[in-house]
Amino acid sequence: MSLAKKFSALVGVLTVGAGAAVVTHPAEAEGDSNIVLLGDSYMATPNQLALLNDHIQAVIPFAPRFAPVTGSAASGCPIGQHDVGSALQTISGRKVENYACSGATLAAAPLQSNMNPNRLDTLVTKAIDSGALNPNTQAVPILIGINDFYKTGYAWSPTPEDPAHEAEAGAELDKAAHRIREAAPNAKLIFLSYPQITAPEDPHMMCWIQAGDLRPLNTPGFGFQNAFNIIKRQQSSAAERNGGTYIDMTESTVGHSTCAPGRDNWVSGLIETNGNNAVMSMHMTDQGVDNMAQQITARL
User: Fold this and answer.
1) What pTM does this model have?
2) CA–CA distance, 140 with 149 (Å, rounded to integer)
3) Which domain holds residue 182?
4) pLDDT (tens digit, 9 = 90+) per residue, 7-63?
5) Is 267 inside a domain boundary?
6) Rounded alpha-carbon distances, angstroms, from residue 291 to 42, 82, 266
7) From CA 264, how far away is CA 219, in angstroms rounded?
8) Is residue 239 part of a domain?
9) CB of 191 within 8 A of CB of 133?
């Protein structure tokens, strides 16, 4: 991927909005049962350059198209051509409906309400109202949490524990689980952590630039590991409270962080020139997307 596709700032890639052209992924798997995905941009995997093009054309209708047209998830939010939903449908052979949305939060107010009004509760409502969540739903994988940290900033502090925030986040996960159970009583709830992003040998470091076969340079991770540790705790405890399954994605990605040598990274840096297929900075490459789909399939 060219440097132009990695221009956006770190926070921006996590909070891009939902004003995209609609090109849906057809559900090719047969049968009445389905899988419903809920979460943020790690599930949706939209193309950030395409999103920029969408927003430019929304303001300047005659502006040229310089990036692929973004697809639309079932939630109405942008998705990439190789999102977790399409990969999971191919690998599992089940019909998958992706209700994830970039920038989605648990308890925090949406970061850019004019562009992205979605919280987990909103996404659940959309999935219920559309009939996607129903008695034939087989599984509901959920990955969410990182966007909540930008509201308070406590994750970046040396002592990030905030029991009140975790209680609020846990309550939102429990509410979502309860509503999903009511609409889809036979569905397996699957709560996931984020993949390994920081350097496993020094979890407070990460690699912002990947260049060819050169070993990436470890640089400060600005509290990312604190945030991910808290989210792992939130997700695993929600699974335990609600009779769900927890997948620790760091276990299958420990050798594929942003600091993996050569082209072994399954999460991109802010700038990547090593040829891996990553459509968003600090998000999963195609290999990372496929691995997440494989991990979910193994728990169905």
Assistant:
1) 0.80
2) 24
3) 11-196+222-254
4) 333 333 343 333 333 333 333 344 479 999 999 989 988 776 666 666 677 778 777
5) no
6) 12, 12, 9
7) 18
8) yes
9) no
- The answer to whether 209 and 270 are in contact (CB under 8 A) is yes
| Spacing of C-alpha 55 from chain mean position | 21
Q: Is residue 289 part of a domain?
A: no
Task: Give the C-alpha distances (Å, rounded to integers) separating 142 from 1, 47, 192, 193.
Answer: 28, 21, 6, 9
> For 198-238, what is each residue's pLDDT tens digit?
877 776 777 777 666 666 666 666 677 788 888 999 999 99
Amino acid identity, residue 160? P
User: Tokens representing 213?
Assistant: 């076969």
HSE-CB for 29 with a 13 A CA cutoff: 18
DSSP secondary structure string, 142-180?
Answer: EE--GGGHHHH-GGGSSS---HHHHHHHHHHHHHHHHHH
Provide the number of structural domains found in the chain.
1
Structure tokens at 243: 């009779």
C-alpha–C-alpha distance, residues 79 and 70, integer Å: 6
Q: What is the CATH number of the domain that holds 127?
A: 3.40.50
Residue 211 lies in a domain: no
